[in-house]
Specification:
Layout (H helix, E strand, L loop, with lengths): L2 E6 L9 H15 L2 E7 L17 E5 L10 H19 L6 E6 L3 H13 L3 E5 L5 H6 L4 H17 L2 E4 L2 H8 L6 E3 L22 E6 L8 H14 L3 E6 L5 H10 L4 E4 L5 H9 L2 E5 L14 H8 L3 E4 L2 H9 L4 E2 L4 H13 L8 H10 L2 H19 L4 H22 L1 H10 L3 H12 L6 H11 L3 H11 L6 H14 L2 H8 L9 H12 L2 H9 L5 H14 L18 E6 L9 H15 L3 E6 L15 E4 L2 E4 L10 H19 L3 E5 L2 H14 L3 E5 L3 H7 L9 H16 L2 E4 L2 H9 L7 E3 L15 H7 L7 E6 L8 H11 L6 E6 L5 H10 L6 E5 L3 H10 L2 E4 L14 H7 L4 E4 L2 H4 L8 E4 L4 H13 L1 H18 L2 H19 L1
Helix pairs in contact: 1-14, 2-3, 7-12, 10-13, 15-16, 16-18, 16-20, 17-18, 18-20, 19-20, 20-21, 20-22, 21-22, 22-23, 23-24, 25-39, 26-27, 27-29, 28-29, 31-34, 32-33, 32-37, 35-38
Length: 975
């Protein structure tokens, strides 16, 4: 797909200037990446023209009117810049573009670019090569009042942009503190592959050639260099200093040089071979910026990269980032901005002919940190991201897409099981809406409304009442179809035993019985039997087709994609392919994904994510954007105009859309997570474009499924085929990651070599790394009574979490502990039963359930607790899979009481960071909670021990080291 870029700049070929050299190679790289480029620039200044430059037939250069007759003064130069900017606006109207980029320091370009982008309705990207508006205030150019007005105007335009680009990290951080749009650092760069080393010349003691080659402006304080040359040459006339270049201050500098006795040789700007000859002449080269302007601490002269790439020795009169680079990139001289100090440095260097050797370390630094390829790829990514965001569909189109996708999903559920659809809809509502709606639904009666009533009771947790209601119907005339409907409600609830008991008592001739028995078989995991049974049912042809499609995928059918021979990945770019993500869900899965990507970004990876097809619209976010950004991490959505109806067709559709996005994004690696449906899509796309992929096993989903069913579930088609597909995915991936030792052992049983599995346990970052706040203060902030005792959890409320055990244990303690409260934060299918258990035990008034909370406030709930509990029941999955929230509790310096299961022993050190208690043993849980509440000193010590463990072993930064090593080893093998 061709993307169009319009660059508004003050200098371009055939000129040879720092901004021109930067953008010439950037535009060459961007055109290779598929961009169509047009440049709007003034006529070339003859003083800077390099006639030897290569032609650029791949782009269009258009020039604004020639106003060279204006004087070469500050006012004249400003007038030229203004005329160029004014002329650029109407000239741009004949140009079609997808994004406008304006380069500064030509400040009028800011206004021109803003107007052009606004008129065309496209993103506006501003490249701040220098630290504007700070420089205009520090230089007092035009006076304080004028400077303040211009600085305010610059800031407003910066804020109006869609993207800012800086050339240094420091200035990017400075801008980030000013309520700016997204900021990306794209360094100046060089390509050392085509640059020869300019070896240090052989010289005699006392000789030293000093070269300054670059702009002669106010920022460079070259008058100080003239004074230093005069001082040095008085003591050693064999020290020779040469200035090469042009600039606004050159006439003044020539006057100062003449007054000083011409200690400096001044020459015009040079290009090509002549520049190389100057470098061959020089023993040390100057980079200099005045130190009295604070913004120069965040400025790196572009000449720095050029000198390092040639292997030249550098004398730097610089501070901040420029000084740091020279310190890292070889044996260079850093001198304070003092003429005497500079002269003394030259005298010392002259005395030792070995003091200015060829700097191979400089070339190595450029290759690692400032290569052309890396910076071009980064810029390409920035521009693509902005174009993609701007092309987000309109509200009408989003509404149409949402209606189509949600209708497909709803129709699918309605055809599958009306009761299940009702349960899903009600369960997705917030608790404060769900309860009154469910209660109201439970009261309706008569005809088909009985099913509505049954769903209402199910959502309210009144399953015993529902069973009694169904039993009352047995034997009544004409009640068989209604009993089948009740059975389907129990199937939807997962109470297969009750459902089977009801179906066994229905007359065999009942019309809907065959379909219900097929549904029973399908839900139990007997997929082949279910398809066979449904084939005998009336009017179920479409259900048979859907199930056959899903069965085919379970049996090994995979998406098919054509190879893409022309694919060119972007170095260090990784795309994560996820089930769900922030900001539409605060799940532990989403938070883990986000934390991993944030940590990888800090390691230098260009990382973003894409979610499964149709999400989040399929789960209720009907007006979701096609892209979200959270803390600088982009989340792309795959939202087709219409969602494929059948399972295998949807997997193929997912693969097709992912491939399309990969061709646009051009990652070097894909990274996905369980389960296998993700893996086969990602594997197909990775194979099509020829890049590696990583599979992260975050759960044992087949075992999670089996844990909610009968003992024979592990012998069913569903379980066996699911495990086979998971095994294939684990063995096919180029890299394999999992969360804990128990899950690792399971992968080894699949046939994966132990050494090929990377352990990346759940961890913490952000606020959880900060010193935890005071418990009392957190309670007050949350509106809780600060003088009570709080035991609880922050979790998804699902049956295997076993929270009923803690409710029962608390009920035993509360008569003797009137201050005890249960604080259960979250939502899920187990919540109605938790509430029902509390009501039955008479402690519902001591149960606090705030529902789902924003992740920005979850740390407060951790801090408010006295004890964090993980009372998981004992199943195959809970014995293997580690949760996330208990790590956050330990980071919050809270003791953790957990079920004594293998996976949880990885998170709780018994009697040190918490306690391990037999699962589902109410008495043991009551004793453990009571013991810690009675001994707050012991509880606090456990909390502190847990926090120290987390800070050492369980941070996302530590995990990022593992991912970084895995990614680089995989990519190096591919290369």
């Amino acid at each position: 797909m061709t993307r169009r870029l319009l660059l508004v700049t003050h200098s371009y070929s055939p000129e040879s200037t720092a901004p021109q050299r930067r953008w010439k190679k950037f535009l060459a790289g961007l055109t290779q990446a598929g961009w169509q480029v047009e440049v709007l620039t003034p006529p070339a200044d003859p003083r800077y023209v390099d006639a030897s430059q290569d032609a650029e037939p791949y782009l269009t250069v258009r020039r604004t009117p020639d106003v060279s007759f204006l004087p070469d003064s500050r006012v004249g130069r400003l007038a030229r810049a203004v005329i160029h900017a004014v002329a650029a606006v109407p000239m741009s109207m004949s140009t079609d573009t997808d994004v406008v980029v304006a380069t500064v320091p030509a400040l009028p370009n800011l206004v021109a670019g803003r107007l052009i982008a606004w008129v065309k309705g496209v993103p506006y990207v501003v490249e701040m090569r220098d630290a504007w508006p700070d420089l205009i205030l520090e230089s007092a150019s035009g006076g304080k009042i004028f400077g303040s007005i211009v600085a305010e105007a610059i800031t407003r335009i910066q804020r109006s942009a869609d993207q800012l680009v800086t050339v240094t990290k420091g200035f990017g951080q400075t801008l980030a503190q000013r309520d700016m749009p997204p900021i990306e650092v794209v360094f100046n760069s060089r390509s050392i592959e085509h640059i020869p080393v300019v070896a240090a010349r052989t010289r005699q003691p006392g000789e030293l050639n000093v070269l300054y080659l670059g702009n002669h402006g106010e920022s460079q304080q070259l008058e100080l260099v003239i004074e230093a040359a005069k001082l040095a040459r008085r003591e050693n006339p064999d020290i020779r200093v040469r200035f090469v270049g042009e600039g606004t201050q050159k006439p003044l500098l020539e006057q100062l040089n003449a007054i000083a006795g011409n200690p400096v040789e001044t020459l015009p700007a040079s290009f090509g071979k002549l520049t190389t000859q100057h470098y061959q002449w020089a023993d040390t080269c100057l980079v200099t910026l005045r130190a009295d302007w604070a913004s120069f601490a965040h400025t790196i002269p572009s000449k720095t990269y050029e000198l390092l790439s040639y292997g030249k020795h550098v004398t730097g009169i610089v501070c901040g980032e420029a000084q740091a680079i020279l310190s890292q990139a070889g044996d260079h001289e850093i001198v304070e901005d003092n003429a005497r100090a500079l002269a003394n440095t030259w005298l010392r260097l002259a005395a030792d002919p070995q003091s200015t050797p060829t700097q191979d370390a400089g070339r190595a630094w450029v290759a690692e940190h400032a290569s052309d390829t890396t910076q071009i790829e980064k810029l390409d990514s920035v521009l693509q991201r902005n174009v993609h965001e701007q092309k987000a569909p309109s509200l009408l189109k989003r509404s149409t897409t949402a209606a189509s996708i949600s209708a497909t999903a709803a129709l699918e559920h309605l055809k599958n099981n009306r009761a299940l659809f009702g349960l899903l809809v009600l369960r997705r509502l917030p608790q404060h809406l769900r309860e009154p709606i469910a209660n109201a639904a439970s009261k309706v009666r008569g005809g088909p409304l009985d099913t509505v009533s049954a769903v209402g009771k199910a959502v309210s947790g009144r399953t015993e009442e529902l069973k009694d209601q169904a039993i009352e119907l047995l034997g009544k005339r004409g009640s068989d179809r209604k009993i089948v409907d009740y059975a389907r409600v129990f199937i939807a609830l997962g109470d297969l035993e009750t459902a089977q008991w009801l179906l066994d008592r229905v007359r065999p001739s009942t019309k809907s019985l065959k379909a219900a028995r097929a549904w029973m078989a399908w839900t139990c995991g007997s997929m082949e039997q279910a398809v066979e049974l449904m084939q005998t049912a009336e009017r179920e042809r479409k259900t048979v087709a859907r199930w056959s499609s899903e069965l085919a995928s379970f049996q090994g059918a995979k998406p098919q994609l054509e190879p893409v021979a022309t694919y060119r990945p972007v170095k260090d770019r990784v795309l994560h392919v996820l089930i769900n993500s922030l900001p539409h869900t605060p799940s532990g899965y989403a938070q883990r994904s986000h934390s991993i990507m944030m940590a990888l970004r800090d390691k230098g990876w260009d990382v973003s994510a894409v979610t499964r097809i149709g999400w989040p619209i399929t789960t209720g976010a009907l007006l979701a954007e096609s892209r979200d950004e959270v803390e600088g991490i982009g989340y792309q959505r795959l939202l087709p105009p219409q969602l494929a109806m059948h399972f295998d067709d949807r997997i193929q559709q997912n693969a097709d859309m992912l491939l399309e996005y990969v061709l646009e994004r051009r990652p070097a690696m894909l990274h996905t997570t369980t389960h296998w449906t993700n893996a086969i899509v990602v594997e197909a796309v990775a194979n099509a474009v020829g890049i590696p992929w990583v599979y992260e096993v975050r759960g044992q989903l087949a075992d999670t499924w089996a844990s909610a069913r009968h003992d024979g579930a592990v012998e069913t088609d569903y379980y066996k085929l699911f495990q086979t597909r998971e095994q294939e995915a684990a063995l096919a991936a180029d890299g394999l990651v999992t969360l804990g030792e128990q899950m690792k052992h399971n992968l080894v049983r699949f046939g994966v070599h132990d050494n090929d599995i990377v352990l990346s346990p759940n961890a913490v970052g952000g606020r959880f790394l900060e010193e935890p706040g005071e418990t009392r203060g957190a309670r007050i902030a949350l509106g809780l009574d600060p003088d009570l005792e709080y035991v609880g959890t922050i979790s998804s409320l699902v049956p295997y979490e076993g929270l009923e055990t803690v409710v029962e244990a608390a009920a035993q303690l509360m008569p003797e502990r009137p201050k005890l409260r249960l604080l259960i934060v979250g939502d899920g299918t187990a919540l109605p039963n938790i509430i029902a258990t509390a009501r039955k035990l008479g402690i519902a008034d001591r149960l606090i359930i705030p529902g789902r909370v924003d992740r920005d406030r979850s740390h407060l709930y951790h801090q408010a607790l006295d004890i964090f509990v993980v009372p998981r029941v004992s199943t195959k999955v809970t014995r293997m899979v580690t949760p996330m929230k208990s790590v956050e509790a330990s980071a919050s310096a809270k003791p953790v009481i957990a079920s004594d299961l293998p996976a949880l022993t990885e998170l709780v050190n018994h009697n040190k960071t918490g306690l391990l208690v037999p699962a589902e043993d109410t008495g043991a849980w009551a004793d453990a909670i009571n013991g810690l509440l009675d001994n707050p000193g012991r509880a606090a010590a456990m909390g502190q021990a847990g926090r120290q463990w987390v800070l050492v072993d369980r941070t996302w930064e530590a995990n990022a080291e593992k991912y970084d090593s895995l990614y680089r080893s995989i990519l190096s093998l591919r290369n």
